[in-house]
Amino acid sequence: MVCLNTALSQAKQVYYITLVNNNKSNPRRLFSIFNALLHHSPNESVISEHTPRTLLISLKAKSILSANNFPNLQIPVISTFLNLLSPYSALITESEVSQLLRSSPPTTCSLDPMPSSLLKQCAPALTPALTHIFNSSLASGTFPSLFKQACVKPILKKATLDPSCLSTYCPVSLLPLASKLLELLVFSRVTNFFCTHNLLDPMQSGFRPAHSTETALCRVANDLQTAKAKGRYSVLILLDLSSAFDTVDHSVLMQIPNKSSTPVPLSVGVPQGSVLGPLLFSLYTLSLGDLISSFGLKYHLYADDIQIYLDSPALTADVQTQICNCLLAISSWMNRRHLKLNLTKTELMVFPPKPGPPPPFTITIDGMTINPVNSARCFGVIFDQSLSFSNHINNTAKTCRFFLRNIAKIRPFVSQVTAKTLIHALILSRLDYCNLLLTGLPDSHLSPLQSILNSAARILLLSKEGTCSASIKLSCMVTC
């Protein structure tokens, strides 16, 4: 019996180690494997009872009006670009294509003519032909029609949402590998072009070098804290857009479990999951920043996420009018560009300069009143009125404790290297995310996160609860 238990333990260890090592560079896949190892069954989707046609219509038209219901868009020519060299003047080289093929993930779309792994093995033979196709596409300004096709997979926006409600799904496009390669080549050229000539909005942090959600949040948080230090009130509005990426032509193939619709041409839409989608949206909304600034408000953007804010010595009626006029102008600006401002999900926060509740302050737009909230989530970080981030810290610690308990269950069956991979992917990644916002907070505020680090070190090193905390932290630093 002892030999049998030992053999079972060794088999479990080999199985767990192999699974984790094969997917250590894919956090999403690692998360799914981790849940499977712990016998956590995912929520089953019940959307299969709907027909593909009904599902397609519901997903694409549930939140945004048809393009025919918007006024015709007439955007003036931007003369700034006319004297600049085209971003596509540099030819694509075979070495570029070969490098992209080698570094591309081994994922395969059903529209691919062959598995991505096989395509990568055939790279030496296919690279010249692909390079010729890509250069011809840039030279003619034509995106190959076959590359415009996508399989659209409905994904729950959050695991806690009702899977039977179609509005809780986000249509994610699965694109052919060749299409993604061409998008990556165009993306790098367009990004370099706009960065070189300083054509991007300086307050746009989405998908550009040296910018991230953390830099965006640090800018907003710093402005709010500066106003608070000066004894001024701050008002922050987190705008929500309905179907923000539904603005350009594409053709998609809708899929649900074991079923698919016939190809349906879309009059508007950038596939969510495409490489160029966020960048195209940033260019499409390039003039939004000037509009917001014209009303005396500050702003920061990350693709389709928009934060506008201002500070004032007092929350007067003039401040309300200033914000309302700005939001009305933004709504009108979006309507002209086939976008839609979702006021029901737009959040308002008031930050008082001193501890205590702020005075009553609401905003009314188009007959809809937006009431302030005590806390709001922005890019995964929970802001509170005191800017102490206590809610965010406690929520992060709670999530990490859940994963630590689960890691502890399988820790006896995995090696230290495998356990370190799990802790990095599921614990440290959460502690590291936007932790620059926590700079300067007292140790008492950060103690829940320090407790998580100590527990992670004990689990990693298989140490007992009574082990000296200082030695545990030192060992964890050396090991991790």
UniProtKB/TrEMBL annotation:
InterPro entries: DNA/RNA_pol_sf (IPR043502), RT_dom (IPR000477). It holds the Pfam family RVT_1. Residues 136-370 form the Reverse transcriptase domain. SUPFAM superfamilies: DNA/RNA polymerases. It comes from the Eukaryota. This is Reverse transcriptase domain-containing protein. It comes from Xenopus tropicalis (Western clawed frog). The lineage of its organism: Eukaryota, Metazoa, Chordata, Craniata, Vertebrata.
